[in-house]
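Table S2 (text version). Query chain:
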Amino acid sequence: MSVKETASGTEKQVIGDSDERVRKVSSVKRLLSRPELGSVSGAILVFVFFALVAWDSGMFNADGVLNWTTVSAQLGIIAVGACLLMIAGEFDLSIGSMIGFAGMMIAIPAVHWAWPVWAAILFAFVCAMAVGFLNGYIVVKTGLPSFIVSLAFLFILRGLTIALSIALTNKTIISGVGNLAEGDWLGAIFGGQVGTAFFTWLGNAGWIETYSDGTPVVTGIPMVVVWWFLLTAVCSFVLLRTRFGNWIFASGGDANAAKNVGVPTDRVKIALFMFTAFCATVFAACQVLEFGSAAADRGLLKEFEAIIAAVIGGALLTGGYGSVIGAFFGALIFGVVQMGIFFTGVDSDWFRVFLGVMLLIAVLFNNFIRKKVTSAR
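Corresponding structure-token output:
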């Protein structure tokens, strides 16, 4: 029973516990309805497993943690973009080729045209996002499946990257970017580290291992990890707390119905294709500045790994459902397992088997939970 104050006095409004308009949902069902449930559970199981079998291997030392965190971050950056696009009901299979393309668009101007590194990075972002715009525009204007359009761009970008690099430099691998990026303000945003003073203090205090000269084995957190956390936080907020996030869900749930109520589905999808290109360029910039070089074949098969991470994270292949946090944990599972196999000395070929098994389990689990939770009672 609720009490409401009115101008004429106190009015009692009785709402029966058995009101047929209100359906009680148990806490268990609310938990099961969370798309990231599977990936969080999987991450816990993976950590427990490797804690039992690889605790003494160095996997959970400071440098070991940095290794699998970096691997997870590299995939996690592009998994965030792939996840948002999948929630909107589309796919981008050109992400992997975009990584190689963007990397060469940084290296060629910087090394062979003597551009400042910051200008080369901005040039790569403009080129990549222009391709992303074209990709999305073709999808929404022609009505062709994004799977087919982006598959075409996968080959176009890969071939274009190789052809341009050979035509302009007679090479498919360009080195020397690292030296040029020293002191560059934008290069530090993608290739630097944060927390160096803190890790030096940890080393001096004996909390982490150090080399013979006192230098800590981990000198800082790479910017690729910072970008991973930053993109996850921002995109999760946008998806769950903004009108644009509602438009993403609506575009993937029922695009025609969304259009009828005024949702600009075409603009939403084009923007998300551009965002996947942005994420791929962030990945490429971090990789180029970390290794000091670019290669035309980088990013091979990364598009499929990004999609698998998003699916493990709870995204449906049919769109309208998913979680950026889930994609975060999906990428974390990848990194932990990939490096865990290395630390335990298991044949690395088993990693691909794991990917296939995880994808199949994730699809079956997500489909089962979706039917159980969303079915009418």
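Notes on Table S2: The two ends are 26 Å apart (CA to CA). DSSP finds 16 helices and six strands in the chain.
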